[in-house]
Amino acid sequence: MREYKIVVLGSGGVGKSALTVQFVQGIFVEKYDPTIEDSYRKQVEVDGQQCMLEILDTAGTEQFTAMRDLYMKNGQGFILAYSITAQSTFNDLQDLREQILRVKDTDDVPMVLVGNKCDLDVERVVGKDLGVGLAAQFNCTFMETSAKTRTNVNEVNVANNDVIDG
């Protein structure tokens, strides 16, 4: 069975762990507990083939940037997450992507841009059009998700299939 390393990156508090746990275990984690590093494994079927995903849920805080280079080096696909309720988390994505491309030493890295917390539309500060525009600039798939309501949680993984197909 093929194995693939998917790395979930984004600023602190955007819901990386909530998305990951919702995908792997089907539960919503309500309380915020800053992550240092968690690794999850889930078997999925892609194009009729069984695959094992190793999903690395990374720290959003700056103090762990040295570890981040290692995640990026080993990762085969990336989920770049931001919160639609926090502009700063969206602004951080450009630097994250540049760091991935530098570490991987290529411009062709499979990634999915994810605007999380779409259930909080009344608190939205980052318009969907901005996510669509940034994804076009990054040449990657974009979708909005909610770990709480499970909106598009499985679809993010399917969008990362170019990692597996590639």
TrEMBL record:
Catalytic reaction(s) noted: GTP + H2O = GDP + phosphate + H(+)
Top EC class of this enzyme: hydrolase
Chief localisation class: membrane
Cellular component terms per the entry's GO annotation: endomembrane system; membrane
Entries under PROSITE patterns matching the protein: RAB (PS51419), RAS (PS51421), RHO (PS51420)
InterPro entries associated with the record: P-loop_NTPase (IPR027417), Small_GTP-bd (IPR005225), Small_GTPase (IPR001806), Small_GTPase_Ras-type (IPR020849)
Keyword Translocase: no
Source superkingdom: Eukaryota
Xref: SUPFAM superfamilies: P-loop containing nucleoside triphosphate hydrolases
Membrane topology: Lipid-anchor
UniProt entry keywords in alphabetical sequence: GTP-binding, Hydrolase, Lipoprotein, Methylation, Nucleotide-binding
GO MF annotations in UniProt: G protein activity; GTP binding
EC number(s) given by UniProt: 3.6.5.2
Subcellular location: Endomembrane system
Matching SMART domains: RAB, RAS, RHO
One GO-annotated biological process of the protein: epidermis development
Protein name stated in the entry: small monomeric GTPase
Species whose genome carries this gene: Pseudolycoriella hygida
